[in-house]
């Protein structure tokens, strides 16, 4: 296993400027979930964006795959202190789902198959900062890593990149999701070590 321990003190020049405070680099991809892994076949998968007045736009798997695709290569940072560099994904830039969506909302709730939720400011999904991804490292995204499709918001701690996402619901006011309601930070900026509510 090619993994650095949390106490790793060797040369880190490869990661200079890329490793947030309190994090350690790993080449593994740990699997962390709050509950059972949903098994969602692509032929029954759907994704929706729902505005605050209840207006919904829906995509099935084929419609989502027909949208413009990008291949972001990004660093990801877990609140449990590991960081993985240069991860390669394929998916739809989130801006494509927001085209022609009329909303005055400032916040969203990401809702997942299996019941998981996490809240984000809407602006953190816009302007090339987030994707709905279906491929990791050249292969279809596995269920344990959120497949068939998950949210990817790499500038925030990875719990904000909701696995098995099925809906984004617009909210005029902020409301905590699953982990936020039990003490995780409401925003989750790894560069500010926003791990818990008091950070």
From TrEMBL:
<dbReference type="InterPro" id="IPR000572">
    <property type="entry name" value="OxRdtase_Mopterin-bd_dom"/>
</dbReference>
<dbReference type="InterPro" id="IPR036374">
    <property type="entry name" value="OxRdtase_Mopterin-bd_sf"/>
</dbReference>
<feature type="region of interest" description="Disordered">
    <location>
        <begin position="1"/>
        <end position="43"/>
    </location>
</feature>
<protein>
    <submittedName>
        <fullName>Molybdopterin-binding protein</fullName>
    </submittedName>
</protein>
<feature type="domain" description="Oxidoreductase molybdopterin-binding">
    <location>
        <begin position="35"/>
        <end position="179"/>
    </location>
</feature>
<dbReference type="Pfam" id="PF00174">
    <property type="entry name" value="Oxidored_molyb"/>
</dbReference>
